[in-house]
Write a structure and sequence with these properties.
Blueprint: H1 3-17, H2 30-39, H3 45-58, H4 62-67, H5 70-76, H6 83-101, H7 109-113, H8 120-129, H9 140-148, H10 157-167, H11 173-186, H12 201-204
Helix pairs in contact: 1-11, 2-8, 5-6, 9-10
Length: 205
């Protein structure tokens, strides 16, 4: 199978399995998505979706979050990994959004990545899902699967992102990264994976 055939097969299989893909993190605007994605680092999406309703009931705008005592933010997100660092980042970035950006989440990578706790992956998710800008956020699922499918050398998530952006059409990126995440969870887990039974690995492996 040539690289071109492999790309076409992966795209076709993912489209047939996941014609529509919901965003796994519950949110209702760019700010609540930003907070949810920040919380998802070293924490499952399921856990984040349990935490955020109570957090957003208290504060779902930068103005309200900036006014919450950090101890209260900590108590609301305590069941999430790295909660102390995340609470500091959430409070500080909310203050910055109020002070520098009129309470709005900036729709560009440079300003997003300047915010506390916001790395390139988080910024990519917000740009793609909140603002519709083509981006390819690479998490551990995507990095693992792209390496298994020999679409990248697996040296780093940075390299994986570059390789996937080069291989797949730009207008597929925003949907494709979610399709790969869902596929990884359902068919291609990190442990106990049986390549012969995987709808993609059994063909391209």
């Amino acid at each position: 199978m040539t690289k071109k055939e492999k790309i076409a097969f992966v795209q076709s299989k993912l489209d047939s399995l996941y014609p529509t893909v919901p965003i796994p993190l519950d949110h209702y605007d760019a700010y609540t998505l930003l907070i949810a994605v920040l919380l998802s680092a070293q924490c499952t999406d399921k856990r984040v979706n349990i935490i955020t309703p109570d957090l957003f009931a208290k504060a779902d705008t930068p103005y309200l979050m900036a006014q919450l005592p950090i101890e209260e933010i900590e108590s609301l997100i305590k069941s999430c990994g790295l909660y102390r660092n995340k609470a500091k980042a959430i409070k500080k970035l909310s203050e910055i959004l109020v002070e520098k950006f009129d309470g709005k989440v900036p729709a560009n990578f440079k300003d997003l990545e300047s915010l506390p706790g916001v790395g390139h992956k988080t910024a990519s998710v917000v740009m793609s899902q909140a603002f519709g800008v083509p981006a390819f956020p690479v998490d551990t699922h995507i990095h693992r699967l792209a390496t298994r499918w020999k679409l990248t050398n697996g040296k780093s998530v940075v390299q994986t992102e570059k390789d996937l952006k080069r291989l797949f059409p730009e207008d597929t990126w925003n949907k494709l990264h979610l399709q790969i995440i869902f596929f990884g969870r359902e068919y291609c887990p990190a442990r106990g994976h049986i390549p012969e039974e995987c709808p993609i690995c059994s063909v391209v492996g």
